[in-house]
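Predict structure. Chain length: 129.
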Amino acid sequence: MGSAQEGRISSATREYFAEAAVAALTGEGHAGQTYELAGDESYTLADLAAEVSRQTGKTIPYRDLPAAEYAAALTGFGLPKGLAEAIAGWDVSASQGALFDDSRQLSKLIARPTTPLSKAVADALKQAS
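Prediction complete.
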């Protein structure tokens, strides 16, 4: 569940961010530059739920809620009210494009493509088991 609607998310792993930092700090021509670091492939939370469902063989639905309902649900799970409202607000920001970037600056810095969603989910499931 969340409040991200069809907002696209261009996430990447910490490994890629670390590699980009090394490249920017040790390479030539990066002084004074600002980079938008994001994964090459974007997805919605519904896409993420569908991929987890596909790989686990279990139905994991994504249910989009208005921000106030999402925050109330999170509070019901035991999160403090302020944190629940912040998380719901972050989802609303995602619905407005705050987590989407298609510039591929990260993959250019590390000189290779970032991991696609299917592999990132597989890796996360492997670590969880």
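Summary: The longest helix spans residues 81-95.
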